[in-house]
Amino acid sequence: MIKNFDSLFDLMDAFPDEQSCVDHLRAIRWKDGAYCPHCGSAKVYSFSDGKTFKCGDCRDRFSIKVGTIFEDTKLPLRKWFMAIWLITNHPKGIASTTLAKDLKITQKSAWFVLHRLRHAAATPSFREPLKGTIESDTTFIGGKEKNKHASDRKGGTQGGAGKAVVLGILERDGELRAGHVANTKARTLQDAVRSNVAAGSAIMTDEDRAFQGLSGDYYHHTVNHSAGEYVRHQTIHTNSIESVWALLKRQIIGIHHWVSPKHLDRYVQEMTFRFNRREETVTNRMNGLFGRVEGRLTYKALIA
């Protein structure tokens, strides 16, 4: 039976011990029936301890955590559940230093826990195209050149020199897709738009020349921010995607303070997961992440 929990207090009341956490994870991960994470067989037998299972075909023993982000963890699932509640319900996420204090674990462990949760939050690649009215924009993430050490300065500030680029594509009143991209070249941005947006949709962008050329496949409208234009005819604007960038930067500046380009996309995916579930209940938002824990992430792979 899947439990409900509207607050962190309710969460701890709903899951008083490790077995209750195992049962909840089983109910979500194996909702269509148990299977072996090694060979995929559905012939699975459970032991009397309620935590261990054995495959009837390959004969391997395993727990519900094998093949997920929880595999080989030394932390009890109860602490993982707390971390999931915090990262899915705090609008700007939580810092690893804060999580370490809350869970009484090391900062290194907290950092790894959060990255494994971000790994689960990453948007699957097999998605239906966005359609209707779409807003697309880029933003730059990185410190100001004047605040950097002289040896780290790239020179100039035009075009976001020395900063990482994030592209966002938002269906109005619908799904957000965002991620770290290599550059702001027309081919990079337009290929991403065409991969995510159905032909014939209406696309709103700013005056960035990299978006010019979309009109062949879409109804492309632009607003000229550099001339002080932000809304035209009440419907032509990029205000919705701009509000997403405000949320992302509050997350980075206010919570994490600094994010490396190497891991930037993981933080963007975390924000995107919460944004796309902003109207859901606390329980559904958490269970949405529980439903995506498939796939192990090792520390070695994370820092490689």
Report on the architecture of this protein.
This protein has 304 residues and is of the alpha+beta class. The protein is built from ten helices and ten strands. The strands form three sheets. It has a five-stranded mixed β-sheet with strand order 6-5-4-7-8, sandwiched between helices. Helix 5 crosses helix 8 and helix 7 (239-256) crosses helix 8 (264-276). It is globular and about 70 Å long.
Lateral strand order in the biggest sheet: 6-5-4-7-8
Helix content: 25-40%
Element string (H = helix, E = strand): HHEEEHHHEEEHEEEEHHHH
**How many strand elements?**
10
Q: Count up the helices.
A: 10
Question: Can you tell me the number of structural domains?
Answer: 2
- Beta percentage is 15-25%
Layout: helices, strands, pairs:
Elements: H1 8-14, H2 18-29, E1 44-46, E2 52-55, E3 61-63, H3 77-89, H4 96-103, H5 107-121, E4 133-141, E5 164-171, E6 176-181, H6 186-196, E7 202-206, E8 219-223, E9 231-232, E10 236-237, H7 239-256, H8 264-276, H9 282-290, H10 299-303
Parallel strand pairs: 4-7, 7-8
Antiparallel strand pairs: 1-2, 2-3, 4-5, 5-6, 9-10
Helix pairs in contact: 3-9, 4-5, 5-8, 7-8
